[in-house]
Amino acid sequence: MTSEIVLFVNPTAGRGRGAQAAQPAASAFRDAGFSVRTIVGLDADDALDRAREAVAGGTGALVAVGGDGLVHLALQAVAGTDTPLGVVAVGTGNDFAGALGLPLRDPAAAARRIAGALKESRLTAIDLGRVNGRWFGTVIATGFDSRVNDRGNRMRLPVGRFRYDLAIVAELAAFKPLPYRLTLDGGGTRDVEATLVAVGNGSSYGGGMRICPGADLRDGLFDVTVVGACGRTTLLKVFPRVYRGTHVDHPVVTTHRASRIELMAPGLTAYVDGERLGPLPITAECVPGAVRVAGAA
């Protein structure tokens, strides 16, 4: 393995923590004997082009310094290749890193963990999801939560987290269950009325919401969580339980496991790893061992 690694940096991650984290991470890698090159794109497309060039050029590892959004971009460059992925998790939401037991918001510690794993060739092969040609590491979100994202993204004010709190209130006011059609592993089709359907390669999204608490990154299967038709009062009771993962015990919630899922529902947008994917219908497949991660617990 080459001693050069590439830091793939999002300077805006975690309200600027990405840029601040790059320096201590780079120092830790250099102290471990690696040479370090940093790439920062002009925009997402340019950043991905640069990451793919680094992978094609034979870098020893691509290390994403940011949150789940940047990891999502990095996965497009390394998935299906022999290039290991490292994650220095400094974003607002770090669900991918959390699922792997990686250090959070401690760039030097994360870099030391990654450097040690690379030196000793301790790489963990994990599954990824693939949908409409895009790779993802955590969760596909559709339904109530994707509508909250849609509304929040359309709002210019207020800024920050409060924008999405207001979006939740607005969506609750207009809330009604949605007609879904699900096909699991090419088997029978299920028509259900549901509040939301989440497809988990990893267990959490949104910075620790354990929507698919049983998901395992190494089992070759998605965990699918279906929150069925319910009223606002029930939804308000069930939703806070997502942070502990105990919502799956509620009678309105059902879970499934599958390696392939087709989702159809009118007027809905899907999000993957917190990034907008596009409208349903979609077909997602779980690809075992699609990427090797350095430093996973």
Automatic annotation (TrEMBL):
<keyword id="KW-0418">Kinase</keyword>
<comment type="similarity">
    <text>Belongs to the diacylglycerol/lipid kinase family.</text>
</comment>
<dbReference type="InterPro" id="IPR016064">
    <property type="entry name" value="NAD/diacylglycerol_kinase_sf"/>
</dbReference>
<keyword id="KW-0808">Transferase</keyword>
<keyword id="KW-0460">Magnesium</keyword>
<dbReference type="InterPro" id="IPR017438">
    <property type="entry name" value="ATP-NAD_kinase_N"/>
</dbReference>
<protein>
    <submittedName>
        <fullName>Diacylglycerol kinase</fullName>
        <ecNumber>2.7.1.107</ecNumber>
    </submittedName>
</protein>
<keyword id="KW-0444">Lipid biosynthesis</keyword>
<dbReference type="InterPro" id="IPR005218">
    <property type="entry name" value="Diacylglycerol/lipid_kinase"/>
</dbReference>
<keyword id="KW-0479">Metal-binding</keyword>
<keyword id="KW-0594">Phospholipid biosynthesis</keyword>
<dbReference type="Pfam" id="PF19279">
    <property type="entry name" value="YegS_C"/>
</dbReference>
<keyword id="KW-0547">Nucleotide-binding</keyword>
<dbReference type="InterPro" id="IPR001206">
    <property type="entry name" value="Diacylglycerol_kinase_cat_dom"/>
</dbReference>
<dbReference type="InterPro" id="IPR050187">
    <property type="entry name" value="Lipid_Phosphate_FormReg"/>
</dbReference>
<keyword id="KW-0443">Lipid metabolism</keyword>
<feature type="domain" description="DAGKc">
    <location>
        <begin position="1"/>
        <end position="135"/>
    </location>
</feature>
<dbReference type="Pfam" id="PF00781">
    <property type="entry name" value="DAGK_cat"/>
</dbReference>
<dbReference type="InterPro" id="IPR045540">
    <property type="entry name" value="YegS/DAGK_C"/>
</dbReference>
<keyword id="KW-1208">Phospholipid metabolism</keyword>
<keyword id="KW-0067">ATP-binding</keyword>
<dbReference type="GO" id="GO:0004143">
    <property type="term" value="F:ATP-dependent diacylglycerol kinase activity"/>
</dbReference>
